[in-house]
Amino acid sequence: MKEYFLFFGISLSIIMACHTPQVVQQTPVPKTPVPPTQPKPYAETNALYQQQVQKYAERLSQTPLIDTFGLAQPPFWVGTVNFNMRRPNFVIIHHTAQTSCEQTLKTFTLQRTQVSAHYVICEDGTVHHMLDDMLRAWHAGAGRWGNITDINSISIGIELDNDGKEPFAEPQMNSLLQLLTNLKKAYSIPTANFIGHADIAPTRKDDPSVYFDWKRLADNGFGHWYSETTDELPADFNPSMALRLIGYDMRDTTAVQTVFKRKYLKKVDFRPLTESDKKVLWQVARKFW
Length: 289
Ligand SMILES: [Zn+2]
Hints:
This protein is globular. It is an alpha/beta fold. Helix 8 (239-246) packs parallel to helix 10. The protein folds into two domains: 86-225, Lysozyme-like (3-Layer(aba) Sandwich), CATH 3.40.80; 226-289, no CATH class. It has helices at residues 2-19, 43-60, 101-107, 151-154, 170-187, 197-200, 214-219, 239-246, 253-264, 275-286; strands spanning 90-95, 119-121, 127-129, 155-160, 194-196. The protein has ten helices and five strands. Bound molecules: zinc ion. Zinc ion binds next to loops. Residues 94, 197, 205, 207 line the site of zinc ion.
């Protein structure tokens, strides 16, 4: 009997399969967006990222506000209804000084390194987003720009895969310019606030290297450049004051002059500023009036 029902069942299935009219799909089913590829080696650290973000989400959702920093807690809790997230106001550009993009991704996903960035751009132009723009990456380290001393708190860090001894690849520069365009628009970042790691840490850092094309960035609205240098210098021109006006930390004048020359004159030169160097400085500083 069992065999009969089995035979009957199979036969019915075949008949139904043969006679079921083929449904022609008239409207194409919209494709589900393919999520960005998650390289397998990072599944574990991606989960860790989510856990860490969750910690902050829980803290932010607690009311009355919790006193995590040891500050005196006000006696009355009244939550305002008008607020949003703090937004980055600077972009700091780096070169990785490593030999591959993969090496940098690994470095930024090992807790013992204590370093990170929001974005890593590979030589082929691939952009890896590693941290929400609203969160604080650890890319700047000790540094100063104007009177700002906690650069990580106000900036987006972008790392370019480059060992510091070679030109920056064209696809990489194209991706960088696109990313900067998006960031400038999203957060209304002022033109002057696209700077390099060496700018904020002149005694410790030299990135991005002398190969980096700051003029190309300035031509696209990211950072200032000088227009012409034919003007005579003002009689009372003070190079240190001009550098300070731009934003440099003047505690080591030689280091700052070297950083300035690497960036604006495309030369690695530790000597004092020449007359023509000063003319360039004068023209750059005027953009910061
Ligand atoms: Zn750097």
